[in-house]
Specification:
globular; 46% helix; alpha+beta
């Protein structure tokens, strides 16, 4: 099912895939290099785990969306992410405090 730039599967209505218009940016960072995965012989381009965390933290930093912080934590606990890149990006976005909360949650297990 298509709704604007979002696509949902009828058997999995709680999840959707988004195809945003370009260029994709995370805060003020427009230099996003997509990760690539091959699925059934097709190249799928998506956010890297690090960029996914930055995207979720952007929502937390700018809109105080607690669910997005929790999503960033879940991704970082299950995927390899570049914590130094995330820390520096958070500082540029005015989110050093958010990064501290995020990092503490990752360390505490």
């Amino acid at each position: 099912m298509k709704s604007g730039r979002h696509f949902r599967h009828p058997d999995c209505d709680h999840l959707f895939v988004e195809f945003p218009p370009g260029p994709v940016a995370l805060g003020d960072d427009y230099r996003i290099k997509p990760a690539e995965r091959i699925v059934n012989g097709q190249v799928i381009r998506l956010l890297s785990a690090t960029d996914c965390v930055r995207d979720r933290l952007a929502s937390y930093i700018h809109w105080k969306t607690r669910d997005c912080l929790e999503q960033a934590i879940l991704v970082a606990k299950h995927q390899s992410v570049d914590m130094d890149q995330i820390r520096k990006w958070c500082a540029r976005e005015g989110g050093s405090e958010a990064f501290g909360e995020f990092a503490l949650a990752i360390q505490s297990g």
